[in-house]
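Fold this sequence, please.
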Amino acid sequence: MSNKRIIQNIINNDEDFIWHVTGSIADVKFNPLYWVLTLATCGIFLIILYYRRVYHAYVLTNQRLIVISGIFSKAVDEIELFRVVNSSTSQTLIDIWADLGTIDVDSTDMTGSLRMRKIPNPHFVRDSLRKQYTLARQKKGTVVLESLSGQV
């Protein structure tokens, strides 16, 4: 089953679709190690890298962050946005050149932490995610309490 069909089946009528992103291999052109590995394996390394990144899809609605992963079988996980506590973006030098990044999402959900690797336009994606989880918290009336233990 394709990711598009899965997305159509799991998004409710009362949810607004915000975006759908997958990892990218745009950093390959800037990393000489990837060139060597691709040549040494007759292109197999690049194919594996591509499928590993593309078959981790992330979907944002106004209520949930949905994670779809897998090539031969699909696993779907979700984080309710009002449970997201924090998000951050990090980039290596090669990621900056390729406009990719890693987005870390922390939540109080059973999923816990989520790492979205090699995402295009990471600052835009993270900012739109932050906007949506802030709105979801306001809508639910949820307040995040931070622990002050250990501080005077």
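The chain has one domain: 3-140. The two ends are 54 Å apart (CA to CA).
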